[in-house]
Specification:
Number of domains: 2
Strand content: 15-25%
Distance between the termini: 23 Å
CATH topology of the largest domain: hypothetical protein tt1634
Number of helices: 7
CATH class of the largest domain: Alpha Beta
Length: about 280
């Protein structure tokens, strides 16, 4: 099962993947994506990214338990259900253990991912310092209290580089000509500032992620989002940023930050995101 979460001003969304997951499974699966900062509440603004729950679980009761827990943490309006139920085999009490892992401590992680593959758990993403890195995993182990589960700590400490990029973008939209991957002058102006921010963070690897609204065919939107991410990479390379440090990803309409039913919401969903890897 996969979950995606909105980002706050300080933290980026993150993911949890699950049993028989990767987000594909041999048994039951769970995935959760980037989580918001601890200060985020269920009443957070519509600009916050949604929590998308996706993947495969063994029964409707597990699906309901996971969704209910997410709604408690982030508010019902932010939780998007893409969970599938199938005849997968889960370890004993798997539902209880998965729900236990969905705790507020995960909100210390930015651009994170929690994978639960059977009784193997892996957490990745970024935290502010080494103490937090150890504390997050310690909290997971304490909450689980089950020696048959193993937890792999793939967290990175030090969120300064991501913060530099987030501050430079400052929630602005990098604009393109309608329906194309051609940058507007306004979009180029924002990217000039992003290039300066990237020079600040040195040789860090950065993923450029394109997003669209939900108008039109999903396949076309995914292709457009990838083309726009590629155009951003090309422009940054022209500004002297090493292309080898930039990767691109197109997610189309799959991670909206606003309601696609309104013009303003669709405009906010058509965006470029920068993620330090």
């Amino acid at each position: 099962m996969r979950l995606s979460v909105p980002r706050s001003h300080a933290f980026r969304p993150w993911l949890i993947a699950g049993l028989a997951l990767a987000v594909a499974a041999v048994q039951a699966q769970t995935a959760v994506a980037p989580l918001p900062a601890a200060s985020t509440t269920p009443a957070a603004s519509a600009a916050a990214k949604p929590v998308v729950a996706a993947g495969t679980v063994p029964d409707e009761a597990t699906k309901a338990a996971v969704l209910n827990r997410l709604r408690e943490l982030y508010g019902a309006q932010r939780v998007v259900d893409r969970i599938q139920v199938d005849a997968v085999v889960a370890p004993p009490n798997w539902r209880q253990h998965v729900v236990t892992l969905l705790g507020p401590g995960l909100q210390q992680v930015s651009a994170g991912k929690l994978e639960i593959n059977g009784n193997a758990v892996r957490i990745s993403g970024e935290v502010g310092n080494e103490a937090q890195r150890q504390q997050v995993v310690s909290d997971l182990s304490t909450a689980l209290s089950n020696p048959t589960y193993t937890i792999t700590n793939a967290l990175r400490s030090g969120g300064g580089k991501q913060n530099v990029l987030d501050a430079a973008l400052a929630n602005r939209i990098i604009e393109f000509q309608s329906g194309s991957a051609t940058l507007t002058p306004q979009g180029q102006a924002v990217l000039n500032e992003m290039a300066a921010a990237m020079r600040q963070i040195g040789n860090a690897r950065v993923q450029v992620i394109g997003h669209t609204d939900a108008v039109g065919r999903r396949e076309s939107n995914v292709a457009l989002s990838l083309a726009r991410a590629g155009a951003v990479r090309g422009y940054l390379e022209q500004q002297g940023i090493a292309g080898g440090n930039l990767t691109v990803l197109g997610l189309g309409p799959d991670q909206p930050v606003a309601d696609n039913a309104t013009p303003d919401g669709r405009a906010r969903n058509r965006r470029i995101e920068f993620r330090v890897l």
